[in-house]
Amino acid sequence: MRVQPVLLSGRCVQLEPLDQRHREALRAAADDERIWQHTLVVARGEGFEAWFDDVLAKRDAGWQIPFAVRRLATDQLVGSTSYLDINPKHRRIEIGSTWYNPEVWGTAVNPECKLLLLTHAFQNLGMNRVAFVTDSRNQRSLAAIASLGAIREGICRAHMISQGGRVRDSVLFSIIAAEWPKVEEHLNARLAARGA
To answer: What are phi and psi of 89, to 5 degrees?
Structure first.
């Protein structure tokens, strides 16, 4: 089974399979240095073209399924997220390479994006495991992943080379299929409380 790009729609966001038509709007959404503080690359300014082209190349090679995140209330693109580490044989996948313009931080955008991606992974793709991996220094991301109901599994020491050549420790989280109904209920309750 090959995981294919698919349009995923919710009440406040739509995840659109990333392609060239998203380039300019995402360039504008990415132009805030706060987004890139803890990322592997800086995809703003001169770094945006390299990031965008690399993501499309990984998509074409089947290594990544990237999405543009559209906020439905404003019809604006506000970020990107992806399926990574796609392994249909072992029925596992990762959700990552996620970034949003700070105007949507703390809104329903991230929880609904994760709800859409998790629902598709568990209910349509039949995955047993969905992983999340983030920089051990990224407190915002650590809190966001934990608030989903994902289980923190540990630290992968000296896991990646981050921007500027820093050797990064990564924190690994996961949700497995047996946990999904409770996580789904939790995310739906969070979104209902926000009015999303």
So the answer is: -60, -45
